[in-house]
Specification:
This protein is mainly beta. The chain folds into three domains: 109 residues, Chitinase A, domain 3; 98 residues, Chitinase A, domain 3; 108 residues, Chitinase A, domain 3. Helices cover 8% and strands 36% of the residues. Strands 1, 2, 3, 4, 5, 6 and 7 form a seven-stranded antiparallel beta sheet that branches. The radius of gyration is 26 Å and the shape is globular. The termini are far apart.
Length: 360
């Protein structure tokens, strides 16, 4: 069994620290100058300890090295291994925000700062895009498969497109052609690389592109893109004056969902949770930031009512066709609390929803 390092409790003064807070110390020098990228697969020997000296994992103890894609482990490993060359051995002190987070009793995983001894044994380079590709201004590699016609979409236009995403080894992970209709979105609301590609295309144009994605096997998503059409985006709905808090004249259900009727509907049939519904909607955080809107896309959306957040499942079942309501959805009925960097809205959310019809 590997010995517990004498300095396991804290990074020593002679360790080197990066801007992220990752500290390390070279224990044995390696050879060469090739270092892995986040997309590569590495082979290592390692042992890990909590700061009280408890060893929680060790390939050395098991007697077998381990291999893994470098972009699919804790952030401290992804960053730290990219500093190393083959044959090198380092000790890392990884702060909790680059590891598994704080200690959580009963979670079954180590928490707080962790100490690792890591020996880099080998690097398997990830497949790369072909050398004969063109590149966007942002550096995304692509090949034009079919030319389009007309103008390019302008920033903010709503683009309708098909998107087939595969890993570098050919495993398809998404294909919009299997849906009922191609998706539409404002060009400036798409991920930057995808938005840049579609912004350079003309209607009917098809491209194959290699989108950098460290979390994907091989480090790239291979995207087959077709720009179907585009149009000027409708103006964004005005931010409600009562977006910050539930007004006194709002009604509230037992769950805490609050709402106000904005426009009457017709009929008396209300959807069930098992129904598929068609709606127009806009959503804001309580500081007035709009995070999603079918209105600005210029197309209503359909979804199974039991496949969305609980506030929607409950609220839309109160409505009839043609009706419009404003909902204040508490975080426990939405996406939960605000989590920086999660990419999703948190806390209480406000939605204006126009219920169009039951699709079933």
């Amino acid at each position: 069994m590997p010995e517990t390092p004498a300095d396991v409790a804290a990074a020593p003064d002679d360790s080197v620290k990066t801007e992220s807070g990752l500290a390390s110390k070279v224990l044995e020098a390696g050879s060469g100058d090739a270092k892995p990228t986040a997309a590569d697969t590495v082979t290592v020997h390692y042992s890990g300890w909590t700061t009280d000296g408890k060893m929680f994992d060790s390939s050395v103890e098991r007697g077998e090295p381990t291999s893994f894609p470098l972009g699919q482990v804790i952030a401290g490993w992804t960053e730290g291994l990219q500093l190393m060359v083959v044959g090198e051995k380092r000790r890392f002190w990884i702060p909790e925000d680059l590891a598994y987070g704080p200690e959580v009793p009963g979670s079954g995983r180590p928490g707080g700062m962790l100490c690792f001894d890591v020996e880099l044994l080998g690097i398997k380079e990830a497949p790369k895009p072909p050398e004969d590709t063109d590149k966007t201004a942002g550096g995304v590699a692509y090949k034009t498969l079919q030319e389009g016609e007309g103008e390019n979409p302008a920033e903010g236009d709503v683009v309708t497109f098909h998107f087939t995403a595969s890993t570098m080894d050919g495993n398809t992970v998404q294909d919009t052609r299997k849906g009922q209709a191609p998706p539409s979105a404002p060009l400036d609301k798409l991920p930057p690389e995808l938005g840049e590609l579609l912004g350079e295309m003309k209607s009917g144009e098809q491209r194959k592109a290699w989108l950098p994605e460290p979390q994907a096997p091989g480090g790239f998503i291979v995207a087959d893109l077709e720009l179907v059409s585009f149009k000027q985006a409708p103006p964004a709905p005005a931010v409600p004056e009562d977006v910050a808090a539930v007004p006194e004249d709002a009604e509230k259900t037992e769950s805490g969902l609050a709402f106000k009727l904005l426009a009457e509907g017709n009929g008396d049939e209300k959807p069930k949770a098992s129904d598929t519904v068609r709606v127009h909607y806009t959503g804001w955080t309580t500081d007035g930031e709009m995070f999603d809107s079918s209105v600005t896309r210029g197309e209503p959306t359909e979804f199974p009512l039991n496949g969305v957040i609980r506030g929607w499942t409950e609220g839309v079942q109160l409505m009839v066709a043609g009706e419009k309501r404003r909902f204040w959805i508490p975080e426990d009925l939405a996406y939960g609390p605000v989590v920086p960097g999660s990419g999703r809205p948190g806390g209480m959310l406000v939605f204006d929803i126009e219920f169009l019809e039951i699709v079933r």
